[in-house]
């Protein structure tokens, strides 16, 4: 029997079906941590799409399709027509930020979207004003905010966040929280993260290893609210958070949106591995001029990002299985703050590969991308899919939503299980999960059924 809980959601083992997914009734409240370039691009984009001023390009939930049954059947509905996702017209935004600019002012400062485009939706954006944020400059050296919560200790700050969530819950039907804030300094798991009791004691004692992002994640879990982490911060990938996630039916997923250079890596590396082509070295460098670039100019914050970006190749290429091809890769990642570029990031890769009989070849990739334009649809998809997970028996109670690995540089998995970084396997996992919860046959791509 499903296990009931006060929120009205349930979880059990085994397959789910459409009858076990609660409908997306009412308003979906989205609480964004950090109303900077990514968040304002997301919010402005959703409103522009709702008004018919733009298309949701880059969003799998809005533009993607899913094949059902055999290829010969021609049954390929839009994902948003196949699973009961919240409608964009039902999304309500709020958030926290360390600056008191409203969303219009913040978007104008970020300079991601054209002024003319922002003016078309200016009244809507101006009406969204940030709540004071939990912030400590010790964890993000290059920022100095003014719209900051104060309290007697970190537990007090956590309770203030919980009060914000509770107040917002009264105005909407469901809530999802997404971190679009800055990259914090590199932290490693310690004893304070081992259990709920240890963490709560650490909150009372202002433990140095408890960063603001962890306080947000804790508040979300205590309130039974799904949480997505768009930065590489140590926040939900901790034992006590995973315990709270299961206890309070609050789905969690990976960390650090997979947008530019790492997105390309998770496309190319599987191709080299599929063809058994060796790799001698992979040098990656980035130039970026937005607030994220400024924060990452601090070595301690860059260390957090570097760890997230470096792990991708090892997991995809499995050098322990293919030592002749990938054992001795020289992998280097650099990020340089370059103000003239603003949000228009450039990711440059030099890849030294080798083929038949060991002969060397090279591949050069120069991706002149727009960081927030790539991140905004990821944030939208995660909000909608996490809300779906919260409403779905068989997903809600398992905590970690590995099927959302598709969107992250650092996917989350069950303890002891290596993460899957191959973009194409991640895509198959995501779509098969949607088929599974809707009671449809999984697609194996075996193809033998066409030749019986």
UniProtKB/TrEMBL annotation:
It holds the Pfam family NAD_binding_5. Residues 260-372 form the Myo-inositol-1-phosphate synthase GAPDH-like domain. GO terms for molecular function: inositol-3-phosphate synthase activity. GO terms for biological process: inositol biosynthetic process; phospholipid biosynthetic process. InterPro entries: Myo-inos-1-P_Synthase, Myo-inos-1-P_Synthase_GAPDH, NAD(P)-bd_dom_sf. SUPFAM superfamilies: Glyceraldehyde-3-phosphate dehydrogenase-like, C-terminal domain, NAD(P)-binding Rossmann-fold domains. Belongs to the myo-inositol 1-phosphate synthase family. This is Inositol-1-phosphate synthase. It comes from Acidisarcina polymorpha.
């Amino acid at each position: 029997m499903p296990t009931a809980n006060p929120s009205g959601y349930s979880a059990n083992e085994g397959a789910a079906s459409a009858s076990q997914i609660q409908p997306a009734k009412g308003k979906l409240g989205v609480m964004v941590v950090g109303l900077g370039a990514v968040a304002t691009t997301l919010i402005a984009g959703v409103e522009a799409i709702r008004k018919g001023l733009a298309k949701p390009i880059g969003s799998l939930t809005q533009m993607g399709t899913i094949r059902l049954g055999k290829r010969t059947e021609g049954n390929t509905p839009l994902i948003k027509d196949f699973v009961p996702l919240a409608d964009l017209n039902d999304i309500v935004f709020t958030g926290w930020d360390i600056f008191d600019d409203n969303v219009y002012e913040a978007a104008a400062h970020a300079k991601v979207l054209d002024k003319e485009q922002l003016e078309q939706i200016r009244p809507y954006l101006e009406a969204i004003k940030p709540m004071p944020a939990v912030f400590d400059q010790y964890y993000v050296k290059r920022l100095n905010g003014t719209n900051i919560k104060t309290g007697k200790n970190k537990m007090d700050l956590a309770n203030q966040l919980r009060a914000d969530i509770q107040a917002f819950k009264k105005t909407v039907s469901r809530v999802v929280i997404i971190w679009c804030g800055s990259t914090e300094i590199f932290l490693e798991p310690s004893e304070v993260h081992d259990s709920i009791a240890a963490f709560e004691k650490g909150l009372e004692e202002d433990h140095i290893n408890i960063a603001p992002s962890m306080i947000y994640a804790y508040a979300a879990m205590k309130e039974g609210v799904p949480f997505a982490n768009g930065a590489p911060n140590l926040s939900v990938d901790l034992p006590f958070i995973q315990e709270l996630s299961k206890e309070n039916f609050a789905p969690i997923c990976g960390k650090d949106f997979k947008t530019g250079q790492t997105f390309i890596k998770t496309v190319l590396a599987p191709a080299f591995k599929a063809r058994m082509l060796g790799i001698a070295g992979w040098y990656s460098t980035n130039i970026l001029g937005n607030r994220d670039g400024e924060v990452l100019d601090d070595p301690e914050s860059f260390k957090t990002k570097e760890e997230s970006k470096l792990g991708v190749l090892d997991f995809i290429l499995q050098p322990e299985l293919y030592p002749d091809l990938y054992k001795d890769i020289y992998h280097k990642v650099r990020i340089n703050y370059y103000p003239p570029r603003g949000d228009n990031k450039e990711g440059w890769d030099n890849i030294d590969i080798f083929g038949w009989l060991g002969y060397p070849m090279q591949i050069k990739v120069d991706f002149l991308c727009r960081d927030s334009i790539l991140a905004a649809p990821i944030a939208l998809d995660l909000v909608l899919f996490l809300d779906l997970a919260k409403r779905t028996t068989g997903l809600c109670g398992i905590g970690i939503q590995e099927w959302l690995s598709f969107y992250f540089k650092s996917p989350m998995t069950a303890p002891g299980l290596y993460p899957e970084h191959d973009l194409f396997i991640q895509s198959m996992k995501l779509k098969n999960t949607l088929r599974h919860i809707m009671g449809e046959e999984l697609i194996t791509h075996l193809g033998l059924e066409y030749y019986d």
